Each structure stands twice: as C-alpha cells, then as structure tokens.
C-alpha cells in the first residue's frame, strides 16, 4: 500500500512539473510576403496555434490556410482555391525542436538566438527545415520571432504561367508567437 501511494505521489509531481514546462498560444501571427517587379502580395493571420515545451525544446505550429487575409479579395480566393487548395489541405503545420536549447536561460529575461529544426507541411507536402530566430524571455512570457523563405515549388504549389511573374520564387514568412505558461 505504501509503495502504491509513493508511486501515485511521484506521478502527481511529475505531472505538475511537466505541466509547468509547456507554453501555448492561440494567437500566433504569421505573415507571408511576395515581392516581384510586377506586384507585391502580402497576407497575414493571427490565428496560429502553437505549443512550446521548454523542458525539451519541442515546438509545434498549426494554422488554417483560410485564416490568411489579403489586401485584395480576389488574391485570397486564388490563394485558397488555386494555389494551396485549402479545401483539400486545410492546415499548414511545423513540428520541430530548438536544437540549441541549452543556450536559453528561461530564468533570466533576455533575447536568445535559437535554431529550430523540424518538418514544415504545406499543401500536404512535408519538407525538413532549419530556421533561425530569437526567443525573448520576459518573466512567465516567451516571445518567438523568426523569418525564413519558402519556395512554393518545394510544396508542389503550382503557379499558372499567366501569373508566374507576379509571384516570387521564394516567399518571406514572418512568425511571431507570444506564449503564456499552459494552465494560467
């Protein structure tokens, strides 16, 4: 009986400790920007969900493709229907790990350079990626910021020849996620 109680107590402590290691947001900001001599195209969403486990550096992002808004409604329609096929592939996702987690002191406020390696899935096509960013620690809040380039052809997104000169070969992606400790 004592052994069973001790096991339950250890499991309870482990659960409480791991619960305090996770940070989440449901309002992550993602923007993409394409610039060509013909046209600039920009879209953004602040509806990305993300979780970060500071104990092991695991990081997950997920966003509904239809949550991106464009300046022009026609661009948004073409994005969803013709390019990323949002009905068939409703989400984009990134799952990875901060590879230099030991460089981050979660107990000291500051900005820390991080390298994140993982798999980015867009349009149903998964690609291995390593991106650099900054993780800002401020008390119980964490802010992750990163920018990286994505080529539509890496994710089998076909651009019709009639608009090929209007869309950049590589599109800049900006990510900002402000996390709160899970359970608060």
UniProtKB/TrEMBL annotation:
Domain of life: Bacteria
Matches recorded under Gene3D superfamilies: Lipid/polyisoprenoid-binding, YceI-like (2.40.128.110)
Pfam family, one: YceI
Coiled coil: none
Domain Lipid/polyisoprenoid-binding YceI-like: 51-177
Protein name per Swiss-Prot or TrEMBL: YceI family protein
Organism the protein comes from: Phaeocystidibacter marisrubri
Organism ancestry: Bacteria, Pseudomonadati, Bacteroidota, Flavobacteriia, Flavobacteriales
